[in-house]
Input
Amino acid sequence: MTHRRRGHGHRRAVAVFFAALLALLAAAPAHAADYRYWSFWQRGEGGTWAYATQGPSTARPDDGDVDGFRFAVSADAKTAKKPRGTADFATVCADTKAAAGKKRIAVVIDFGTAADAPDGRTPPKPRTACARIDEGGSSADALAAVAEPLRYDNNALLCAISDYPKSGCGEQVSGDKGDRSGRGAADEGDGGPSVGLVAGVAAVVVLGAAAVWQARRRRG
Output
């Protein structure tokens, strides 16, 4: 009778362990939230676009740099769509002469595709422009010099370039409506398990293993 009770306790501990593990795995997000917004890019050596690590109002490009802006739907920096086209500084600023106390920034503006447009609107065609601004000017200054009117929200998020889109600002279009933390973040919203979930699974594994060990120990 004692042996049967111990065997029952062992099976019970294993069942509890796997039930908790499955519950944690089921809590993993199925898909990260998607947002419709303007992303900001900087073109490096070799013509490769890199997602900007700071906003256009704080970025200080040098003479000869290329800034890019792309309107699209994405969850974060890892999935954001890059500006299209191969235009470089020499091409964009070929007809803009250098001037003392000024710097020239090539600006690439990609209004996105019809699939990314809000309410079925037709986006303008991508375009480029060469901005000549003061030496201490920001990427936002360069954009304003060639693509007004611009629209920002109260948090300095870029909402519209050349009045596109006319309304809305970084609105969520899919995913969990209660979580807006993933917009534009390079390390969040990638659809994978969260750090908390992984830690929780690890804790269950440890506790479950301890329960099984205790049950076997009692049997012995």
Observations:
- Residues 178-213 have pLDDT under 50 and may be disordered.
- DSSP finds four helices and eight strands in the chain.
